[in-house]
Write a structure and sequence with these properties.
globular; nucleotide-binding; 9-stranded mixed sheet; 569 residues; single chain; Anticodon-bd; ligase; alpha+beta
Length: 569
């Protein structure tokens, strides 16, 4: 490709609206342009890199035995209502009506569509197992699109779905996809971790997220440096350090006046106690039913864990009026005593607390010197909180580490969640009708592109992994007015192109400084500069990642380029 004809409008300065490094660099390097909030056009360089990612995904999915198809992006509402997700999925589902008033949704995910297809086409166990996948644009009405391609309203995704006859077969399909994802992200060049996760609105049981490690990531990854344990903060469990012995652990519980202490901070300062000594009572309603969750004052409630424990779809805080009517209590002074009519679940760390502080369900009063086993009713104890700094690994006891990550892939075991609701049944070898056992497996293709740039960049610009670089070689001619430089460049360009090496030739009438600046910004792995030694058939080479520079004879270039890429495979 001759660069003078390439559509790549570069920017010298960082766009003010771009917070993430990947967003800034993709705009500056002319990879993308915004059409509206969360919606982007991929320009030629960005689209070529995107296609490279798709090629790797297809190769690994095909090698794992999956078959590619393409499903509609426009979904009739009847399918989503049949699965029960039309009302549950939430405002992120983009809904519309046709001219006849029939409701549709733009595809945010395709469980309903694929299940219906397989239901209608496969009835016998002899046609199972089968795994089908597509690469297609998805639509979600994000409340706050941000970070460029990392959180948009329209994005490119690979989604795959497996259909098996048994849980054992699903385990095999799941492992094949897990292994395929590991190969995909390794080949692409991501620094990633596979972590235990929550299935969210998709549903299902066992699930792993593949996280690209990056400071800009919106997910917190909890992992153990000593063993292989890793989980999203939504799922992570940790063992808290042992509680220090309370100074007044044998003192009798006492009612005290605590005016205007409606927060943990205010109460801690008023009583001169640490937040660890306070038992925080959180008044909630789970699927419309009131309940109470108890945690140490310095801990955060993990609603994902709570939903899983009680089997709730929605959990939200009780309003002040609801606290008064349902609990006969006051916000900031809530406690479990006298609330036997509602479910109460306590975090495991609450068990055994002594000399603790808790609300009395009376404005401006708390109970101090509380011994949980002595002064409070019996509770159900479960892991309700987010893992926190200082926690120990539940598997090996080593201190846990915390880092940020970008979710680039997710694999789920769906079981029969969709096949039962949508009637995807098969006849087994005995003629019995059985629901298909399903799994689903997603990769955010466009998000992967952004994640790669987050990890592979420096002060000058992008540093492409060679596997997904838009071009293999960046050929730069210092002066197109120099006949020797131009002719030598022309010969190199045709020699490499005929050998199947994709070359971007900077043949623009620009100053050398502009060309070198743009070359670093675009980040193609190997740069060949034809300059003042062209008459001697000497070319300067520069490796973008290492910065290594050296000279080669023109006759050595083809072998060197082939060796450079084979060595880096």
């Amino acid at each position: 490709m001759r660069q003078q004809h390439l559509l790549h409008p570069t920017l010298r300065d960082n766009p003010a609206e771009a917070e993430a490094l990947s967003h800034r660099l993709m705009l500056r390097a002319g990879l993308i342009r915004q059409l509206s909030s969360g919606v982007y056009t991929y320009l030629p360089l960005g689209f070529k890199a995107l296609r490279r990612i798709q090629d790797i995904v297809r190769q690994e999915m095909d090698a794992a035995g999956a078959q590619e198809l393409l499903m509609p992006a426009l979904h009739p509402s009847e399918l989503w209502k049949e699965s029960g997700r039309w009302d549950v999925y939430g405002p992120e589902l983009m809904r519309l009506e046709d001219r006849n008033g029939r409701e549709f949704a733009l595809g945010a995910t395709h469980e309903e569509v694929i299940t219906t297809l397989v239901r209608d086409e496969i009835q016998s166990y002899k046609k199972l197992p089968v795994t089908l996948y597509q690469i297609q644009t998805k639509f979600r009405d994000e409340r706050r699109p941000r970070f460029g391609l990392l959180r948009g309203r329209e994005f490119l995704m690979k989604d795959a779905y497996s259909f098996d006859r048994s849980a054992e077969e699903l385990d095999e399909s799941y492992q094949r996809m897990y292994d395929a994802y590991t190969s995909i992200f390794t080949r692409i060049g991501l620094n990633f971790r596979a972590v235990e996760a929550d299935s969210g609105a998709i549903g299902g049981t066992d699930t792993h997220e593949f996280m690209a490690l990056a400071d800009i990531g919106e997910d917190t990854i909890v992992h153990c440096p000593a063993c292989k344990y890793a989980a999203n903060i939504e799922k992570a469990a940790g063992v808290a350090p042992p509680l220090a012995k309370a100074a007044n652990q044998f003192a009798a519980a006492e009612k005290v006046y605590t005016p205007n202490t409606t927060s943990i901070k205010q109460l801690s300062e008023f009583l001169q106690v640490s937040p660890q000594q306070i038992i925080k009572a959180i008044a909630l309603k789970a699927d419309g039913r009131p309940m109470l969750a108890l945690l140490p004052g310095h801990r955060e409630l993990n609603e994902i864990k709570l939903k899983a424990i009680i089997g709730a779809t929605q959990v939200e805080m009780l309003s002040e009026d609801e606290i008064a009517s349902e609990l006969q209590s006051v916000p900031g002074f809530i406690g479990p005593n006298g609330l036997s009519h509602i479910p109460i679940i306590a975090d495991q760390e609450v068990r055994g607390m002594t000399d603790a502080v808790i609300g009395m369900n009376e404005r401006d009063y708390h109970l101090v010197h509380v011994d949980v086993s002595r002064d409070l009713p019996e509770f159900t104890y479960r892991d309700l909180r987010n893992a926190a700094e200082g926690d120990r690994c539940t598997r090996c006891g080593h201190e846990l580490a915390f880092t940020k990550g970008i979710e680039v892939g997710h694999v789920f075991k769906l079981g029969t969640k969709y096949s039962e609701k949508l009637g995807a049944l098969f006849s087994d070898e005995h003629g019995a009708s059985m629901p298909m056992i399903m799994g689903c497996y997603g990769i955010g293709i466009s998000r992967v592109l952004a994640a790669v740039i987050e990890q592979h960049a420096d002060e000058q610009g992008i540093v492409w992994p060679h596997t997904i670089a838009p071009f293999a070689v960046h050929l730069l001619t210092v002066s197109m007015q120099d006949d020797t430089q131009r002719n030598v460049s022309e010969d190199i360009y045709h020699t490499l192109t005929r050998a199947g090496i994709e070359v971007l030739w900077d043949d623009r009438e620009e100053r050398a400084g502009v060309k070198f600046h743009d070359a670093d910004l675009l980040g193609i792995p190997l740069r060949l500069t034809v300059g003042r030694k062209a008459s001697e058939q000497i070319i300067e080479c520069k490796e973008r990642r290492s910065g290594k520079q050296y000279e080669l004879n023109v006759l050595q270039l083809l072998a060197h380029c082939q060796s450079f890429y084979s060595t880096n495979d």
